Amino acid sequence: MELRPLNVSSTNKRKRYELFIGPNHPGISGNFSYVLEMEGHKVADVTPDPGLLHRGFEKLMERRLWTQNLALVPRICVPEPDVNEVAYCMAIEHLAGIEVPKHAQYIRVMVLELARIASFLFGFGGVGGTTGLYTAPNWAIGDRDYILDLFEWLTGGRVYHIYQYPGGVKNDIPDGWLEKLSDLLDYLESRLPEYDNLIFRNPIIRDRLKKVGYLSAEDAIENGITGPNLRASGVNWDIRKTQPYLVYDELDFEVPITGNGDSYARALQRRLELEESIKILRQCIDQIPDGPYKVKIPNPFEFRVPAGSYYSKVESSRGEFGYYVVSNGDVKPYRVYIRGPSYSSGLYYAKKAMNGMRIEDVPVWIHMMDICPPDFDR
Predict the structure, then answer these.
(1) Is 17 inside any structural domain?
(2) Between the N and C ends of the chain, which has fewer C-beta atoms within 10 Å?
(3) d(Cα 357, Cα 42) in Å, to the nearest integer?
(4) DSSP code, position 294
(5) Per the domain annotation, does 42 fall within a domain?
(6) Confidence band (pLDDT; 50, 70, 90) for 37?
(7) How much is the pTM?
(8) Which helix (H) or strand (E) holds 163?
(9) 42-49/168-169 β-pairing
(10) Rounded mean pLDDT of the chain?
(11) How many CB atoms lie within 10 A of CB 317?
(12) Which residues pair with 38 in a beta bridge?
C-alpha cells in the first residue's frame, strides 16, 4: 500500500490523497490494483489498474492448435481453472458435432463441483482475511488442500489440471477415487457447523459485512453481474438450472437465494451453495454410468474444427464463464472471446460500488464480490 498526495487547490476544505491497494496488498485478490482517491477515510474516486498479470490469452489462442489451448485457458481463473477447460471443450464439441459419452459428462460435473467447493473455501478464507479472523483462512485453505489431493490423484495436477479434452476427459477415474471422494464429502459436511459458528454466526463478521456494498437486483442485471453475486441480490438465475448442460438436468439440487444484496448476503450465498454442491457430488457418485471416458478425435496436429461459431457457457463459482469460439475450418481457432464474471464487477462496476465507501470496507467488498484478476487481463 502506498500513499501519494494529490495536487489540490487551496480552496479545498479537505486534503485528498491517492491510496494504492494492490498488486501485493493482502486486500486484493491477486496481481491487480485499485488506485483510490481518498477524502479522509472515504473513497472519492477509484481507478482500476489491470495489466499486472498474464495478458493476451484470446490472441494467443488464435495462434495455437485447438488442443494446445487446453494448457493455456486454466490460467484465466487460477482458483477455479476447470470451468475454462470445460467451456472451451464444449464449444469445440458443438462445432465439430462430437457427442461426449455420459460417463465423461458425469466426470466433468464432478470436476466442476469439486472446483466450485474449493473456490468457495478460498472465499471463506477471504472473509476472515479481510476482517482479521485469521482462523478462517487457516481452516479453509487446509480443507481445500484435501480437494487438491483428489485433483492430483485424478489429473496429475493440484492447481492446473489440463484434464478436459474435446470428446471427454484424458483418463478415467482411478480405482478407489469415488470412495475417497465420498469420505471427503462426509468430512466437509461435518465441518460446515464449525464454519457457521466461526464465520456466519459471528456477530463481529455480521457487523463488518452487513450493509457494505449493497447491490440491488436492477444494478446487478444492468452491470452484467452473474452467479452468486446476482443471486445474493435476489435474482433466481443459475445456468445449471435455466439452461442445463452436461447432466445437470438429471441431478436434483436447489438454487439458494439470499436476496439482501450486501456483502454478508454474498458470503452467505456461497456457504449455502457449497452445501448444494455436496448434494450434487453425492448423486454423481451414485448415478455415474459405465462407459467410455472419451471419444477419439483426429491427430491434434491435423484436427480441424468445421467452420462456424458458437457460444458455450458454464456456471462457475463466480458466475457465467462463456467462450465465443469462431472457426474457419483451420487447425487453429480463428477467433476466441472469453466472457468472465469478474470483468464487469471488478472493472466498471467497481467505480460505482466503491464511491463513498470507507477504506476498511474496500477489501471486504473486493473479496465478497469474489473477483478473479486474471479475468481482467485475458
Answers:
(1) no
(2) N
(3) 5
(4) B
(5) no
(6) very high
(7) 0.92
(8) none
(9) unpaired
(10) 91
(11) 28
(12) 17, 43
